[in-house]
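Listing S7. Sequence submitted for prediction.
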Amino acid sequence: MKYDVVVVGAGPVGSTAARHAALNGAKVLLLEEHASIGSPVGCTGLLSTRAVAECELKPSDDFVFNSVRGAFVHAPDGQCLPIDGKQTKAYVVSRKNFDRALAVMAVEEGVELSLRTRAVGLEKTNPETSKEGKKREEQKSSQIKLRVLRNGKPETICTSAIIGADGVKSQIASYAGLGKPARVLPGIQIEAPYASDNSDFVELFPGSFAPGFFAWTVPVDEKISRIGLALEPGLAWKDRQEESSPLSYLKKFLHSNPHVKAKYSGGMLDFVIGGIPIGPQEKAVSDGVLLVGDAAGQTKPTSGGGIYPGAFAAKIAGKVAAKAALEGDTSAKQLSEYDQLWRKSLGKELEIGLKIHDYIGKLDDRQFNDLIGSLNTPSILNTITEYGDMDHPSILMKKLMFSRNSLRLMKAFGTFLRTLF
């Protein structure tokens, strides 16, 4: 079995990469280790409008449960910062249906899909030193031997390029010697009965209920929400002799936060655990291999969302991989075009996002109360409404820094704003 490009992982990012490799003329195989697309789910299922558009899908009742236009940010002391985007900013989706729609789009472009197929190793060969002495262009489909288990049986797949879209625990990254993202935040979420004040708004809870990140409620409708949190392991229950698992934090959040406790009816309809990569690796390519999405740490450090940056990078990866395979040169040097292009567009935003993440993560509850209180003025809220962007938080930070509220914000943020840019 010989292919120009093999994509490992049939999530939204993998399907997008596979489709764009096919659109650029490559013979493509898309592998998924599970028995069905979109299951198990490892995501909140809140996608920005830009993320859906980047995947080249139109919002549809087939996968959209609810539309969201803003957020209520709850300080530890109970004050609420209402952020109203005035229009739809994000969709609450069925990830199973969303993922399947993207996989179908890939298959319709000629991508071959193989379920229950897990990559278990790879071997790289140098075409220029093959025993047959064939020219490089004739060897373009046999540079990498990918070992897989298909339905439990071992097979070998020959390909010129592999795109690793296999998530935060990427095996392809390990096989290629590219390492892991700098940090991984453990997260947990349930879907449960919850009486939302307004199902057009998500709720965010920074502070000690989720050290280093935040807790959330995402309304599926007026009566059901997805409730979860993620945290920095090093900050969890710091200096305390207590259990520090995400589950223990979620239980505490559900039963100790007065706002949530009053609206949560108990029990759960669904349960999800996963990891959020924070910070990309130094390199996302090696000879014959490219990494995309969570495997490459292409996740927004401020929100944990990965679909928009992952899909953006996946389209570049698919095009670069296809071109390199068809031209017979899938060396790291040739594939580095992908690394240069995605970092040029996304790198600065991820870098700024990481600084924001680290700054916010170090605040204690009192500091969060002061910060949210400082932001809760009509002029600042208007600025947030006009310039707030889930995918590009740096835009808002710049506007706040140079607004007439800058002195007020400098008192709240200290020197942090000045160090961002």
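Caption to Listing S7: primary sequence and predicted structure tokens for the chain studied. Residues 332-361 form the longest helix (30 residues). Confidence is low (pLDDT under 50) at residues 129-142.
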